Amino acid sequence: MKSNTNEPFELLVGYDGSQTTQVQQAQSAILYPPNGLHTLITGESGTGKTLFARTMYSYGKTTKKKAEDEYPFVEFNCADYYHNPQLLLSQLFGHIRGAFTGATQETVGLVEKANGGILFLDEIHRLPPEGQELLFYLMDTGQYRKLGEANSIRKASVLIIGATTEDPNDVLLKTFKRRIPLSIQLPAYRERPLKERLEIIERLFIKEAIVT
């Protein structure tokens, strides 16, 4: 394996095959000045969207030569709080004491934790319209408020990477989607060359053997 800044992507099956274009897009997204391009990763379940996002982060940390504490990676699955939009937004942006019933103390949101790095939102199509609008404002201005804040404005520099199995045109607000300039479509397993499919199976067997 080559010892260079491309190394994180070289660990992906198909980095020099069925995912060559996707890897090039991801590298451009991370390196785009000044802080990268917000990116949407699309593809069927099982195509490796989460792994791809984590690899983008590893590539960014390697090329930018930054430590984990100054270039964090924060991961959040929007589906976990889909039935409680208020709690979902609180997870993302934090809240102040008294912001809603049960909010007995101020909390730190994931946006604040991801400041300076990457916030990966899996199943981003589960983000309610209000959340998409608040995230759009953050992406557009670098500013946000915790839930319940009226006057304070907070700042954060966060690169957003979202992942979805759905058609973005059907599930995301047009204004929000326009703020994400890059979309990376990952190939389904059945679309991969035979060599890559066999390598994926081999890796799964090895991983299962190690776990058990």
How does this model look, in words?
- This protein has 212 residues and is α/β, with parallel strands linked by helices.
- It has 9 helices and 7 strands.
- The strands form 2 sheets. Strands 2-3-6-1-7 form a 5-stranded parallel beta sheet.
- Helix 2 packs across helix 3.
- The radius of gyration is 18 Å and the shape is globular.
- The relative contact order is 0.19.
- The model has no long low-confidence stretch (mean pLDDT 93).
SSE layout:
Layout lengths: L6 H4 L9 H12 L7 E4 L6 H16 L8 E5 L7 H9 L16 H4 L4 E5 L6 H13 L1 E2 L9 E2 L3 E6 L3 H4 L2 H5 L3 E4 L8 H18 L1
Parallel strand pairs: 1-6, 1-7, 2-3, 3-6
Antiparallel strand pairs: 4-5
Helix pairs in contact: 2-3
Pick out its properties.
single chain; 212 residues; alpha/beta; 5-stranded parallel beta sheet; two-stranded antiparallel sheet; 7 strands; 13% strand; globular
Tally of helical segments: 9
What would you call the shape? Answer: globular
What structural class do the secondary elements suggest? alpha/beta
The share of residues in extended strands comes to 5-15%
Terminal CA distance? 28 Å
- Specify the biggest β-sheet: 5 strands, parallel
Compact overview of the structure:
The chain has helices spanning 7-10, 20-31, 49-64, 85-93, 110-113, 129-141, 168-171, 174-178, 194-211, and strands at residues 39-42, 73-77, 118-122, 143-144, 154-155, 159-164, 182-185.
